[in-house]
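Researcher: Please predict.
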Amino acid sequence: MIAADPEPRWFKSSYSGGSGTECVECAYVAHGTLIRDSKYADGPILDVRLSSWCAFIGSVRHGSQPSS
């Protein structure tokens, strides 16, 4: 029998705005990262695979622009 995944542990992004109106929360899961708007915790969740998340974070760290 396979155990069910525990509830995701959400944390506020360090890049979220300080005014409380632009907050993004993330949660790491086995296959990648979940992203949601903290004001709508029961709303839609963006599910990003690990390889895509790593590419995104690498681009942010290095200031890369996406290719068109």
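Model: The mean pLDDT is 81.
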